[in-house]
Amino acid sequence: MNVSQVGRVIITVSDTDKAIDFYTGKLGFEKRVDTPMGNGYRWVEVAPAGAVTTIAIVPPPEGSAVGGKETGVTLDTSDIDADHAELKAKGVDVDPEVSRMGGPVPPMFWFRDQDANTLLVVQPS
């Protein structure tokens, strides 16, 4: 295998423009790629500034449901409380409070995007 990194993860969305607004406007990500795919679809990738791995926000395969998925995407932060408060103030569907289990488990909270796809924010030690 010649794999060197995780390049991107995919989150399916019902409306690409609304997803771009959410990920760039609410989360502050950059739009890195916006390429037509044919039939009115686009391949769009967003990411935090300076990040290597991107999130592709694309329509689901034909016949597949969209939204309400636990994505498995975990975003690292240096200030969990500030990020939680900011997302809450922006009207993002976030957990009511930051979870603090103690010990080796870092503080974390879940939030949902415009299609109720769930992502996790963690403040690693």
What layout of secondary structure does this protein have?
Elements: E1 8-12, H1 16-26, E2 30-38, E3 41-47, E4 54-58, E5 70-76, H2 80-89, E6 93-94, E7 108-112, E8 118-122
Structure characterization notes:
The protein has helices at residues 16-26, 80-89; strands spanning 8-12, 30-38, 41-47, 54-58, 70-76, 93-94, 108-112, 118-122. Helix content is 17%, strand content 36%. The protein is globular and about 50 Å long. A four-stranded mixed sheet has the order 1-4-3-2, covered by helices on one side. The protein has a four-stranded mixed sheet with strand order 5-8-7-6, with helices on one face. The mean pLDDT is 95. It has a single domain, classed as 2,3-Dihydroxybiphenyl 1,2-Dioxygenase, domain 1 (Roll), CATH 3.10.180.10. A hairpin with a 6-residue loop joins strand 3 and strand 4. The protein has 125 residues and is an alpha/beta fold. It has two helices and eight strands, in the order E-H-E-E-E-E-H-E-E-E.
State the helicity in percent bands: 10-25%
Distance between the termini: 31 Å
Main sheet strand line-up: 1-4-3-2
CATH homologous superfamily heading: 2,3-Dihydroxybiphenyl 1,2-Dioxygenase, domain 1
- Examine the secondary-structure arrangement and name the CATH architecture: Roll
Largest sheet: 4 strands, mixed
CATH level 3 topology: 2,3-Dihydroxybiphenyl 1,2-Dioxygenase, domain 1
Mean pLDDT figure: 95
Number of helices: 2
